[in-house]
Amino acid sequence: MLFNSIDFIIYLPIVFFIYWFIVNKNIKLQNSFIVLASYVFYGWWDWRFLALIIFSTVLDYIIGLVLKKEDNRLKRKLFVWTSVIFNLGFLLFFKYYNFFVDNFISAFSFFGLKFHYNTLNIILPVGISFYTFQTLSYTIDVYKRKMEPTTNFIAFAAFVSFFPQLVAGPIERAKNLLPQFNKMRHFDYSEAVNGLRLILWGLFKKVVVADTCASYVNEIFANYSNYSGSTLLLGSILFAFQIYGDFSGYSYIAIGTARLFGFKLMNNFFYPYFSRDIAEFWRRWHISLSTWFRDYLYIPLGGSKGNRIMKIRNVFIIFIVSGFWHGANWTFIIWGALNALYFIPLLVLERNRLNIDNIAEDRRFPPFRVLIQMVSTFLLTTFAWIFFRSESLADAIYYIKGLGQNFFSFPEIFPLKTLLFIFVLILIEWVRRKTPFPLSDLNQFIRNKSIRYAFYFSLIYLIIFFGLENQRQFIYFQF
Amino acid sequence: MLNLFLKKVFKISLIFTIPFILISIYNIFNIYKSKIQISTEKKILVLGDSHTMTSINPKYFEACVNYSLPAEPIYLTYFKLKKIVRDNALLDKIIVGLGYHNFSEYNDKKFTKPQIANFLLNKTYAGISMSNIKQIELNIKIYLKVLLKNIVIMPQTNHFDSFGYYSENEGVNVAKNCIEVIQRHYYNNDSAVAGISQLSKDYLDSIIDFTSRNQLKLYLLNTPLKKEYRTRVPQIFVENYNNCLNIYGIKHTTLDYSSFFASDSLFLDCDHLNTKGAKIFTKHLKSIINDY
Q1: pLDDT given for residue A436 in this prediction
Q2: C-alpha dihedral over A378, A380, A386, A389, to 10 degrees?
Q3: What is the spatial distance between Cα A38 and Cα A31, in angstroms, rounded to a whole number?
Q4: Distance from B149 to chain A by nearest Cα, in Å?
Q5: B7 and chain A: CB distance < 8 Å anywhere?
Q6: Is the CB of residue A455 less than 8 Å away from at least one CB of chain B?
Q7: Would you call A457 and B4 a contact, using CB atoms and an 8 Å cutoff?
Q8: Given this model, what pLDDT does residue A5 score?
């Protein structure tokens, strides 16, 4: 079920009503209902893949309990590896099987060896990359004795399958989300209002910004050889805003929906395009994944300890794995590697924590130096997005080559309306850059009720208007 | 607190919804009372899909008006015919595009496939009533979205503005793969030949009944096709078309111009005429129809 679909518009109020009016008597009922609602939400897409979620849930629940009782180090290791192998095994099979087969065959044929091996027509289960990482965080934390395993199976099933963030995150840590299922939820008015604001802003970013960018991006990336360099540059900038609007939009809707049910999820985006360097960008972009990799891969590898070579190796590993997580294609790996290349100079010069304060604190406009830093970081990111968006490495390289042709001509495609929405997005986000999300406590910012409501209605109108024009899937559903 | 929240959400929804309800009431009334006004000099109505849309240029056939639409299936032609004839009593001849592909089962799904349903419904929603579409497979979500868009959110000033038109294109043999077109028209996704559409046959009967009852002269027209298209039409569709000619040809005029042009320079692609081809064809058609 898509957040931007009529199905969800009908589904959400029904679930909300049952949750707060019928199953609000005790925590068991609340959790059981969340599991049911989440399975229906997921099964709406393809009920067969529910078996995978249920299997992961049962396996990790049992392993959690076993790890609690077991003191033998070797056995504990065996159990945690069982969880890792099964969870990553599913992920590898569904997501990467064909990629590895294709690449092995290509590699062998390079040396003159021929294999006849058919790839499989595999459907990628929606959200597998997200819930796999979420359950893994649980078993690893229990193994490391960073948290106590839960003895409440229903609460654990609700944690794994919680529908707002099941298919595209944020990837929650067990330590943050699981305890929330062990407490009775009570309705909180201000949280619910902020939840609706988050949903509204998320839908605006997805439906109005990302989806209007999408049609131009699709055209430009599909026929890049027909366009001038200036159009290709515009295409990559539009994609930068498409992916931002699409994914951060999803995250906001997910966090907002969770708040309606009394849950607090971690923030996944914090105005990333205002970053002053790449290190800051990665602290603000897809925060739940970046911190997951930091905690479960980068730190176990040694993190920023050790000599310079080790540090560089660790950064490369984390970025390449992160790229590969996004999809079974060399384009994602190069995207990851490129980001590592951007990041390494900052790490080596120990300037990766230079920009941790608020951007242009107490200023209406950024100082010129900060502006240059923000623009150059954005352009570096946009350049990397070309690899992310291209169908193949060859396409990406030809696209980049094309950037140099007729660069100073006026773009053949100039979507004024879309650029206007991007400008509005940037403006609102800039003004509200200190808040967790732009509409957060908006009543404090726009005190005049009429103006505030006019603003809400404008957003709602635009969402309905563009939602009727085209309904697109969220990009991160495929990851 | 929960009640206060719900009350507030309800109040806001109401404030937002009331103007839209009023707008939609006004527009439904507007659709109901508005008519498609065709000049009284026009006596001949052309309906059909992109084949008639690109073939008959009213500039060279002053008495006719072309209300064809790309991808228009026969059942939609019937709905449009009823609406236009009801609003224009002076029409006396109807030309309906009827080619081999109009009987292909792929037409039955046109209101279910998102892209094409969206296109067709956006153009013709005002001429389609709920009673019309009962027998047709319809993507109800798309239909509701189209209504919401055109009646409530972005109401049209003239709901019949895009009901149909003649479209001209000066290109010659533009790169459009004929095999792909044949595949789309006559084959299923599994490469098996598509079936004959009973729905299209039934609605063709309805068109014939309707024109008879309203004393309208009906012409069933197969527009010119390139040889590379014509020769690839599966035999079952050619036979079906010939059967139709035998059945309907007794009472109505069936005009088969599929092999009318030999020169490829008169075609936009394998199954559509270009501006030049349309000019020659329209002039010829005019002389034929005036003779009948």
Answers
A1: 92
A2: -50
A3: 10
A4: 6
A5: no
A6: no
A7: no
A8: 82
In angstroms, what separates the C-alpha of A199 from chain B's closest C-alpha?
Answer: 14
C-beta separation of B207 from B240 below 8 A: no
Closest CA to B107 of B167, B57, B51, B169: B51
In this complex, which of A189, A464, A468 lies closest to B4 when CB atoms are compared?
A189
Look at the block and give the residue holding tokens 């009720």. Answer: A449
Give pLDDT tens digits for A207-221.
999 999 999 999 999
Q: Which two tokens stand for residue B108?
A: 């039955």
Over chain A, what is the mean pLDDT?
Answer: 90
Residue A119 has pLDDT above 70, yes or no: no
Helix (H, G, I), strand (E, B) or coil at B267: strand
Closest to A259 (Cα-Cα) out of A159, A186, A203 = A186
How do beta strands B44-47 and B217-222 pair? Answer: unpaired
Q: What is the pLDDT of residues B156-185, one digit of tens each?
A: 888 888 889 998 887 777 756 788 889 989
Q: Do A456 and B9 touch (CB under 8 A)?
A: no
DSSP state of A120: P
Answer whether B153 sits within 8 Å of A193, measured CB to CB: no
DSSP assigned state of B193: B
Pairwise CB contact (< 8 Å): A187 & B1: yes
Is B12 close to A456, i.e. CB distance below 8 A? Answer: yes
- Whether residue A175 contacts residue A264, with contact meaning beta carbons closer than 8 Å, is answered with no
Measured between beta carbons, the chain B residues lying within 8 angstroms of A461 are: 153
Q: How far apart are CA A391 and CA B198, in angstroms?
A: 42
pTM over 0.95: no
Please identify which residue in the block is written with the tokens 């095994």: A89
Q: Helix or strand or coil: residue B131?
A: coil
Nearest CA in chain A to B143: A468
B175 touches chain A (CB under 8 A): no
* Shortest alpha-carbon distance between residue A271 and chain B (Å): 28
Cα gap A400→B185, rounded to integer Å: 39
Q: How far apart are CA A4 and CA A7, in angstroms?
A: 8
Does the annotation mark A116 as catalytic?
no
Q: What residues are paired with B219 via a beta bridge?
A: B95, B253
pLDDT of A479 strictly over 60: no
Q: DSSP label at B222?
A: E
Length of chain A: 479
According to the model, what pLDDT value does residue A239 have? Answer: 96
Q: Are A414 and A205 in contact (CB under 8 A)?
A: no
CA distance A405 to A11: 50
3-state secondary structure of B177: coil
Q: B146 CA to chain A: closest CA distance, Å?
A: 7
Establish if A189 touches chain B: CB-CB under 8 angstroms. Answer: yes
Amino acid identity of residue A97, one-letter, is Y
Other Cβ atoms within 10 Å of A67 Cβ, number: 20
What number of other Cβ atoms are within 10 A of residue A54's Cβ?
Answer: 15
d(CA B25, CA A370): 54
CA distances from B217 to A391, B46, B69 (A): 55, 12, 21
Q: How far is CA A251 from CA A206, A226, A245, A377, in A?
A: 10, 35, 10, 23
Q: Which residue of B has its CA nearest to A189?
A: B1
Q: In what order do the strands lie in the sheet with B217-222?
A: B64-66, B44-47, B93-97, B217-222, B253-256
